[in-house]
Amino acid sequence: MPARITNERATTWPDAHQNARPGTPQKHRVVIVGGGFGGLYAAKSLRRADVDLTVIDRRNFHLFQPLLYQVATGGLSPADISSPLRAVLKRQKNTRVLLGEVVDIDPSGNKVILTDGTVPYDSLIIATGASHDYFGNAEWEERAPGLKTVEDAIEIRKRIFLAFEAAEREPDPVRKSAWLTFVVVGGGPTGVEMAGAIGEIAHHTLRHDFRSIDPSLARIILVEGVDRILTGYAPSLSHKAKRSLERLGVEVRLGQFVTSIDASGVTTAANDDEVFIPSRTVVWGAGVKASPLSDVLTERTGVETDRAGRILVAPDLSIPSYPNIFVIGDLASFSHQTGQPLPGVAPVAMSQGRYAARLIVKRLKGRELPPYRYFDKGTMATIGRAAAVAQYRSIKLSGWPAWLIWLFVHLMYLVEFDNRLLVLTQWAWNYITRNRGARLITGKTGTLVSATNQPADEAQSEAEATR
């Protein structure tokens, strides 16, 4: 349930215009909640606007999520794909950045409610993204983390490399096999990229690093509920992506749904047949749901949502009956263009952020814009070294050409030049040496490693008791 609106013991953050000279007209106040792709591109589009702009995020950095899987697999460090919001926006004199968490909204009073205060607005852009969806099985998250944050990536990285370390110490062949079995749930871009990267780790990066195990014998299993992976792509590209994964040693299991995840592995079902996969490392990439702010907006404005909790926005990205509140990115469900919601990808969020900013500026001049339309620049996904798929309308590419395009596009979308240079250097080194220099195990490892000393029959009994 959303927090109750209250001003008790709350701080009202001062407006930027309060520092202006006495008698200066108050500028239009724009507040952006969320420093992801949508929020950041909206902010950058308002850099020359005659407004007071406030960007609020609970993190002090912008995260380049499309490369988060490379952090999770040791190819890049978190700092390579992150940029401090204050550094990115420091030259925008009309902009201030607040570190805080928005927990409620007061549409009638034009205020956003933080955990420690309130911020007034005249126009509000909400771009808080999405989180993992376990389809009513929240208990799976502990065993199968998703990939949305830096913390998620570091945790997955720890589990992947710790699994090889645990297998190196494990004398029991059954338990050793479970440690060397990796299950990725979901055949979308995240799942495909993760499975391919783990395949490269097992068959190339770590192949000479251990003495008691052969990392190349590791099993990487990608589980997808429908009849092909990458369903947003042409069937021919889905087939080529599947073959690329299989060349990396990935087992692609189609038409199978996960029915259980516990300490000892994953249970899948196809028709009436259930299959148990003993595994100690599971990565979730099967579904997303709107951020918790969706519930707040529903209660405060009465706006409708889709099945994933995304806000059903108007053709101009605003909330019906609230023309000064815009919802963009993964939090928005926009189906006015094709009848189907736009995909939750970075180019959509960036495009919507630009549109919302332009519309605010136009309205300040007493003008309007045509309804929002998304120009599809194509989609792409990488599977591994020199292997990717890309699609732009009727143009379909795979293999080396698609991989080069993927490299170029992702480098160009990195926010800061320093990040581009660092990532380009790291990628070049990784390509030449097949080495992943950021494969660090951080945080506490005692719980997972100590599990190797647990008798195999005892672990199996515990798992059966929880199933």
Task: Give the total of domains.
Answer: 2
Order of adjacent strands in the largest pleated sheet: 5-2-1-9-21-20
* Termini gap: 30 Å
CATH architecture of the largest domain, by name, is: 3-Layer(bba) Sandwich
In terms of structural class, how would the helical and strand content be classed? alpha/beta
Report the β-strand fraction as a percent range: 15-25%
Write down the CATH class of the largest domain: Alpha Beta
Q: So how many helices?
A: 13
Average of pLDDT? 90
Q: Oligomer, anyone?
A: single chain
Rg for CA atoms: 24 Å
Helix content: 25-40%
Shape: globular
CATH topology of the largest domain: FAD/NAD(P)-binding domain
Sheet bearing the most strands, described? 6 strands, mixed
Number of strands: 25
Spans of 5+ residues with little confidence (pLDDT < 50)?
Answer: 1-10, 451-467
